[in-house]
């Protein structure tokens, strides 16, 4: 059985997990890896809102039953824990279009 060495850094960043219902479409020649998809905002009540293009999604925050570890492998083949994810943001509803009224309309 192989052994895995873990080193917990002194300071861990706080990360979260985003769960979407459905999928994000993009042209076949474009990859989503490392791409900016949208903006995540948390309002005063703690409700997450995700803005993707001209659409907004409203979700909720859920605490994970078991924490999730984010790890990377170093050059000397040791694993380093970068972060521990304890909550996820779930977006189940359909996106709503963002409609902006013209300033000349009343």
Task: Give structural notes.
The chain is mostly beta strands and 106 residues long. It has strands spanning 6-13, 17-20, 39-42, 48-52, 55-58, 60-73, 79-91, 96-97. Strands 1, 2, 6 and 7 form a 4-stranded mixed sheet that branches. Strands 3-4-5-8 form a 4-stranded antiparallel sheet, with no helix packed on it. The termini are far apart.
Amino-to-carboxy terminus distance: 71 Å
Q: What value does the average pLDDT take?
A: 81
Radius of gyration: 19 Å
- Residues in β-strands, percent: over 45%
User: Which blocks of ≥5 consecutive residues have pLDDT under 50?
Assistant: 1-8
Total beta-strand segments = 8
What is the N-to-C order of secondary-structure elements (H for helix, E for strand)? EEEEEEEE
Shape: extended
| Structural class by sheet pairing and helices | mainly beta
Count of alpha and pi helical runs: 0
Summarize the amount of helix as a percent range. Answer: under 10%
Question: How would you sum up the major sheet?
Answer: 4 strands, mixed
Helix and strand topology:
Elements: E1 6-13, E2 17-20, E3 39-42, E4 48-52, E5 55-58, E6 60-73, E7 79-91, E8 96-97
Parallel strand pairs: 1-7, 2-7
Antiparallel strand pairs: 3-4, 4-5, 5-8, 6-7
In short:
This protein is mainly beta and 106 residues long. It is 0% helix and 51% strand. Strands 1, 2, 6 and 7 form a 4-stranded mixed beta sheet that branches. A 4-stranded antiparallel beta sheet has the order 3-4-5-8, with no helix packed on it.
């Amino acid at each position: 059985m192989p052994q895995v060495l873990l080193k917990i850094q002194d300071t861990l960043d706080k990360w979260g997990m985003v769960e979407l219902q459905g999928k994000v479409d993009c042209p076949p020649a474009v990859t989503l890896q490392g791409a900016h998809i949208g903006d995540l905002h948390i309002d005063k009540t703690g409700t997450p809102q995700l803005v993707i293009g001209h659409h907004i999604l409203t979700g909720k925050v859920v605490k994970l039953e078991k924490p999730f570890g984010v790890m990377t492998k170093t050059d000397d083949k040791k694993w380093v824990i970068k972060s521990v994810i304890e909550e996820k943001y779930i977006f189940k509803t359909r996106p709503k279009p963002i409609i902006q009224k013209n300033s000349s309309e009343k």
